[in-house]
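Subject line: Sequence and fold of a protein, written as C-alpha cells
Area: Proteins and the way their chains fold up in space.
Start of record: The labelled sequence and C-alpha cell lines come straight after this line.
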Amino acid sequence: MRFKTEKLGDFLYIKGRIGWKGLKKDEYLSDGVYRIINGEALTKDGIDWSKAGFISKERYEESPEIMLQNDDILISKDGTIGKLGFVRNLENPSTVASGIFVLRNLKPEMINIRFIYNYLSSVYFRNFIISRTEGSVIPHLYQKDFQNLYFPLPSLKEQNKIVDVLDIISCKIEINKMINNNLEQQAQAIFKYWFVDFEPFGKTMPNDWCNGTIDDLAKDIVCGKTPSTKKADYYGTDIPFITIPDMHDKIYSITTERHLSLLGANSQAKKNLPKNSICVSCIGTAGLVTLVAEESQTNQQINSIIPKDGFSPYFIYLLMQTRSDTINKLGQGGSTIVNLNKSQFAKIQVTIPAISAMTDFDKIVSPIFEKVLQNQKENLCLTSLRDNLLPKLMSGELDVSNIKL
C-alpha cells in the first residue's frame, strides 16, 4: 500500500449505545418527529428512511452521544454486520438502535469523511470483518475493533480526488435509480388510467372484459423450490436463483445472491421461469413483486406467473402491485408468519381485460420497462466498475493526483 496507515480511532468519534434499554414494540410510534434507525434501515444503497421507526422525544434524548448529525457514518455491529449508511440532508432529529455504531469526523482538516465511507465499502474492510467474526456463532463488532483499525491516509487533496472519482460513478447510479422510479410511477399512472378509471373506454369497464382469478392470467403458476443443498454441484453461476432478498426495491430481479448450475436447474426443469415472468413473494415478507430479467428459478417462498400467450406481462406486474396488501393479508390467516400457498394465490380475484386492450397497453408501456431494464443493467456494470476501482484507489495503486475532473 502506497499510503501511510493510521488508526481509525485517532481521527473519528466512534460511539454505540451502551447499557440501553431496548424499545418495546408499543414504544414505536406510527408517526412523529423523532426517528430511530435499526439494521433493517441500512441497505446496500445507504439509509432507507421508510424502514426507520418513530420514537418519543424522551426516548430520543436518552442518548445524546448518538444523536445523529449530517455526514455521520452508520455501520451495523450485530447480526448482519458491516451494513453501511451515510447521513445527508438530515430532516428529523434522529438516533440509532443498539446494533449500530455512529462514526463522526473529528479532524475535517485531515479527513474527508466520504473517503472513510468509501474505505468501509471496500474489500479491505470486508476482509477485516471476516477476520473478526469468522467462526462466531453470533457475529459482533466491538468499539475497540474500529478504534484499532488501520486505514490508508493519503493527503486531503488525494482523498478529495478519490472521492470525486467514485462519486461520479455513484451519482450516475443514483440518477438511474431516480429515472427508474419515475418511469415506474408513469407506468402505474397509465395502468390506473386504463384499468382502474377506464378513461380510454368512456370511464366504464368494457363488456368484453370479465372477472376471474390469477389462474386465468397464467399459462402456468410456478411455486419455486430449492434444490438439495447437500449437492454442491447443483449450485454455480449459470441460472439466477431468486429469493426474497433479491426482490426488495427492484422492478427486475437482475442480481441474485445465489445461482444454480445447469445441473441444478435441470434437476427441476419445471421450475424454470422465462424472461418477464412475474414473481410474487407469498411467505414471510409477502406481497413483493418483481419481473424476471432472464431465465431463472426461485425458492419455495415465491409464486411466479408465466403469462398466457398474448397477455401483457407488464399489465400483470402492475396488477400484482395493486394486490400486494391483499396477498399479505390473505397469507396471515391469524398466524404471525405470512404463508399464502399456490392454490390460495391462484384463486385471488382479478379483472381480466380483453387481449386487444392488453396488447394496446403493452405497446405503450413496453418502452418504459425496456428502459428500466437497461438502466438496471447499466447500474450493475457501474457498480462492478466502482467495486473494482475502489481497492486500487484506496491502496494508491491508481494515482489520482494528475486526474482532472
About this structure: The chain has three domains: 5-154, 155-188+355-393, 210-352.
